[in-house]
Automatic annotation (TrEMBL):
It comes from Pallidibacillus pasinlerensis. Pfam families: CvfB_1st (PF21191), CvfB_2nd (PF21543), S1_2 (PF13509), WHD_CvfB (PF17783). Belongs to the CvfB family. InterPro entries: CvfB_fam, CvfB_S1_2nd, CvfB_S1_3rd, CvfB_S1_st, CvfB_WH, NA-bd_OB-fold, S1_domain, WH-like_DNA-bd_sf. This is S1 motif domain-containing protein. The lineage of its organism: Bacteria, Bacillati, Bacillota, Bacilli, Bacillales.
Length: 285
């Protein structure tokens, strides 16, 4: 007869009831189903479908709350705690959180998942039989991808980061498309498990997509114009910068290129919000 193993679903029989729960058996081994993990009252000799896991004391236990994530099956879970010297803990629907060991996470802790991140994982056991989480590999993710077509070009997509590399970031979109974000198409590197929103800049022959997290030109122009106008307001309506200012001065003050600065000024002037005079820019009263 097979031994009871954490991470699996079993149909066991109620052997006896105690004050704090029920002992279930497969005829060879017994395991405790705590009353807090049971759904209603159970009867002796009743067959019960349960998920086996280790409780906080490391003992094999049972629950009638069957998680999607099991040994050999995959599902989404949320990161609930991060410990840099150990790994991250995720909630798969049990009373005990599951550890994804640092050995199964990226080498750079800067791209480790943050609390609230979502990961696609399965379960495994270590050499001591302890239940751990394991990230889905690229080969596994391939089974969940859908092919995109050219109709989504330049459309916005949302997705979760499932893999990070020096050259870029891989996501699976809400639609199931495999997306790649090249390092040149992001302001900062997303973390594993982050939800990102970007636009489709290419649809490949294999149905995967390239995604950019950078703003569209008109969106960036709006942001730059709003930033410059807010700066003018903070200074009482004037500033010693115009479209003739030195690029290095603009970069130092606004952290944007002179070209972007001139486009933003042009927009504000076209909207009648500002004017320039003798090397200064003013808000129109």
């Amino acid at each position: 007869m097979n031994h009871l193993k954490p991470g699996t679903v079993e149909t066991l029989t109620v052997a006896r009831e105690v004050d704090f729960g029920f002992f279930l058996t497969n005829g060879n081994e017994d395991v405790l189903l705590h009353k807090s993990e049971a759904k209603g009252e159970l009867q002796l000799d009743e067959d019960v479908r349960v998920f086996l896991y280790q409780d906080k004391q490391g003992r094999l236990a049972a629950t009638m709350a069957i998680p999607e994530v099991q040994l050999g099956t995959y599902g989404w879970c949320e990161v609930v705690e991060v410990k840099e010297s150990l790994g991250v803990f995720v909630n798969i629907g049990l009373s005990k959180d599951i550890l994804i060991h640092e050995d199964d996470l990226p080498k750079l802790t800067e791209v480790w998942p943050a609390v609230g991140g979502r990961l696609f994982i399965t379960l495994k056991t270590d050499k001591n039989g302890r239940l751990l989480g394991k990230l889905a590999t690229e080969n596994i993710m391939e089974d969940y991808f859908k092919k995109a077509d050219r109709s989504i070009f330049n459309k916005d997509v949302k997705g979760y980061v499932y893999r990070t590399l020096y050259s870029g970031t891989f996501i699976i979109t809400e639609e199931g498309y495999r997306g790649f974000i090249h390092e040149s198409q992001r302001v900062k590197e997303p973390r594993l498990g982050d939800k990102v929103t970007g636009r489709v800049i290419d649809v490949k022959e294999d149905g995967s997509i390239n995604v950019s997290l950078l703003k569209r030109v008109h969106e960036k122009l709006t942001d730059d114009a709003e930033m410059i106008f807010a700066y003018l307001q903070e200074r009482g309506g004037s500033m010693p910068y115009t479209d003739k200012s030195a690029p290095e001065d603009i970069e130092k003050r606004f952290a944007i290129s002179k070209g972007a600065f001139k486009r933003a000024l042009g927009r504000l002037m076209k909207e009648g919000k500002i004017y320039q005079e003798e090397g200064w820019t003013y808000i129109k009263k």
